[in-house]
Amino acid sequence: MHAPTLFDGFFLGGFECSTHRRHDGRRLDLIAATGHDRHAAADYGRMRANGIRTVRDGLRWHLIETTPGHYDWSSLLPMVRAAREAGVQVIWDLCHYGWPDDIDIWRPAFVERFARFAAAAAAVLRDEGVETPFYCPVNEISYWAWAGGDMARFNPMARGRGMELKHQLVRASIAAIDAIRAADPRARIVQVDPVINVMPRPDRRKDAEAAEQARLAQFEAWDMIGGHAWPGLGGKPEYLDIIGVNYYSDNQWFLHGGTIERTHPQYRPFADILAETHQRYGRPVLVAETGAEGDARASWFDYVCDQVQAALRAGVPVEGICLYPILDYPGWANDRHCETGLYGLCDEQGGRCLHQPLANALMRQQARFGTARDGILRAIAS
Questions:
Q1: CA distance linking residue 262 with residue 124, whole number of Å
Q2: Which residue range(s) make up the domain with 100?
Q3: N or C: which end of the chain has fewer CB within 10 A?
Q4: How far apart are CA 377 and CA 51, in angstroms?
Q5: Is the pTM of the predicted complex or chain greater than 0.85?
Q6: CA–CA dist 256, 199 (Å, integer)
Q7: Cα(194)–Cα(287) distance, rounded to whole angstroms?
Q8: Is residue 3 in a domain?
Q9: DSSP assigned state of 182
């Protein structure tokens, strides 16, 4: 059985940090909308109180580089220092769907500007004394290419340009990795994208080949970054360091149909998806996002933990499970209260309500798995 040691803790908490512009032009800032920017110290303290010692969080590029080439780190440094004071390790997202307004994402200058920003950020965290810095250069390249390049759901609000956007984001990720490693060779890189399963509808067996092509598209960005596809983009195997997989209850569906429910015979076990992803790239895997809404939170978390345990027993090097988002948040499209978190939205004093069923599930699973950095991963027979 694989025993995880990569992060300070096996269970992570992810802070929603999207900064994209919606189809109506409004920019979102989920770090501000959840109050995490104002209450980062308390939020990191809450993570430690619940046995979470590693988190995902984000830089807000549009706030840091409001003037080309000039960086204002005032939105980042309090968070970096609060995490250090709390003893919390952070995986930093550098670009979570958003960028400064003066940049045209389709032009080569986007790649160049992002690389300079990544180098500057890595230098700041290095100088702040961050040990073993972790970065996700570009979050969810595949989803962003689909939502922003094909479906016009958010920036850059394009249709029919998904592959072009995917290529551009891969170039940006590669350039950022080079820049980060030049500034701090200790840096580790997490490449985060969703994993999926697509099947033909039972009454449309003739769609089997098209469904399989849709399923295999989940690997395109990682293949490009690793130089296995479109080598002219500059990919190399060493750019694939840690594979971050995002997985939710709607990540399996029928081609031209609805979601494949977990009770359906065509639902693919998550452990099998983890194994296939590792076998394809030979790299350690992080469940970089998983979670559910409302009363489904605890049961979904238990399912994911069961599947990760099965993968670990099979020798798949899964290094952690990140509950995401760890805080409730206002919905992207309509500001509705999305009850997804271990903690709720904050009140005026920064207080947050604990979702006790998920907290109980987390405690059970921590007892079941043990802690990655402190010792031995304990596997208890189901």
A1: 44
A2: 11-369
A3: C
A4: 15
A5: yes
A6: 9
A7: 10
A8: no
A9: H
Here the tokens at position 200 are: 């033909």
- Token pair 């469940």 is at which residue? 287
| pLDDT tens digits, 10-45 | 999 999 999 999 999 999 999 999 999 999 999 999
Measure the CA–CA gap between 255 and 61, rounded to whole angstroms.
36
Question: Of the candidates 53, 11, 54, which has an alpha carbon nearest to the alpha carbon of residue 363?
Answer: 11
Residue 350 tokens read as 């920064």
User: Is the pLDDT higher at 195 or at 374?
Assistant: 195
Tokens of 299: 């049961």
Q: Quote the tokens at residue 47.
A: 């993570």
C-alpha dihedral over 17, 19, 20, 23, to 10 degrees? 100
The answer as to whether 191 is a domain residue is yes
Amino acid at 325: P
pLDDT class for 373, splitting at 50, 70, 90? very low
CA separation (Å) from 223 to 187, 253, 367? Answer: 21, 23, 37
In a domain, 376, yes or no: no
Evaluate whether residue 259 is within a structural domain: yes
